[in-house]
Each structure stands twice: as C-alpha cells, then as structure tokens.
Amino acid sequence: MLTNEYVLIFSRSFLFALATLLPILNPPSVAPIFWTLTEGASSATRLALAKRVAINVGLMMTVAMVAGNVLLSFFGLSLAIVRVGGGMLVVASAWRLVNSVDGGTQRAAQMAESFTPEMAKARAFYPLTFPISCGPGSIAAAITVGAQFRDQDHLASLVRLAGSLPGVLLVSFILYICLRFAAQFLYRLGESGTSVFMRLSAFILLCLGVQIVWDGAHELLLGMLLELRAH
To answer: Is the pLDDT score of 116 beyond 90?
Structure first.
C-alpha cells in the first residue's frame, strides 16, 4: 500500500473509534452520577478519583478493543451474556441512586470525615469505573472497534490499531474533563436544579441498564429460536 492509503486508514480508524465510543460512554451524563457517588469527598479526592476513573476507562476499552474477542472465546462467553450481566449491574446501581435520600449539610460533613483515601480507592473501579462510566455497552462497542483490526495485511491491522488508540485516549480525556468540572457545572444549576438533574440522570441510567439487559436477552432468545427451528 501507499503511504497515503495508510494515513487514510489511520484517520478512519481514529474517527471510527471516536464516533463509536464517545456517544455510548456519554461523559456528560456520567458527571452527576460521579458527583452523587462521591458525596462528602474533598476536592482533592474527587480530582484524584476523576484521574483514576479516566485511566481505568481508557485501559478497559483498550483491553476490550485489543483482546475482547479472544477473552470472550476463552471463557466461552458471548456479547449477549456480557450485556445481560453488565446491564443488571447498571440497573442495580441506578436503582440505588434513584431511591437515595437527599443529604443535607450535616450529612455531607459526616461523610467528608469518613470518606478516606482507602474508600476512594475502593470505589475507583467499582462502581465508578464499571459499570457507571464504562458499562457493558461501552465494552461491546470497544470489542466492535477491535473487530476491524483483522486484515490479511498485518501492517494495515497495526495502522488501524494505532489509529484507534488515540480515539480511546481522547474519549478518556473528555470523560476526565467532565468529571473534573462536574462541581462547577452542577453549582450553576443550584441545589434544587442539581437534585433534579441527578435524579433524571439516575433514571436515564436505569433505562439504559434495562435496554442493555433487553438487548442481550433479545439476542439470546433469537439464537434459541434459530436453534429450535434448525432442529
């Protein structure tokens, strides 16, 4: 191939990864959930958590993109099963947020005293990274992006990988920015506006979880019907 063709492959892979992962990850909708789950944490703790969550999401999507299909085949899992299991985790997390009691100043102060660095580290991956920030839908999308790496031209496959990785990095950076400045955004909404926005975000997250479970269950049911018809 000519150099220009490889540059074109690189650019297309970058745009494909960005266009596929960013809408599903949807960083702006994650910000209020992040703020709610880190209630009582100091600004420094939230900043550290935002960095850690963004790094975790980038690593998860990269692993899913590069080795997702291999890992699923190794464990004998299908994307439908991943959607059902991960979707149930999203539903459970969103349900707790929807039914959470709004805390006042005194409760926030009490939580600030108990929100230790150890607690922050414990929450950095679950539930802040998975399934809140990077759920089964994002993982499935990353695996889909990784499917394009298969090419008889090994150099073209490497170029596609090289083009997709900056896309993942940019998505992770956008997530970090949204989490980093969640406080400033929510402050402009005011106390009542923030409460409404958080409840609405939690409800949307709940609906997304149900949709993910349904997509997985629908795929499993279709597969079962096809097998019955074949026999």
So the answer is: no
Give me 219's structure tokens.
Answer: 């795929």
Average pLDDT of span 69-73: 76
Token match 């940019």: residue? 170
- Write down the domain spans for the chain: 3-230
Tokens representing residue 215 in the block: 């997509």
Residue pair 100/205 in contact (Cβ under 8 Å)? The answer is no
Answer whether residue 112 shows pLDDT above 60.
no
Torsion, Cα 61 62 68 74, to 10 degrees, reads -120
Q: Can you tell me the distance from the alpha carbon of 158 to that of 6, in angstroms, rounded to the nearest whole number? A: 10
- The helix/strand/coil state of 1 is coil
CA max distance for the chain? 66
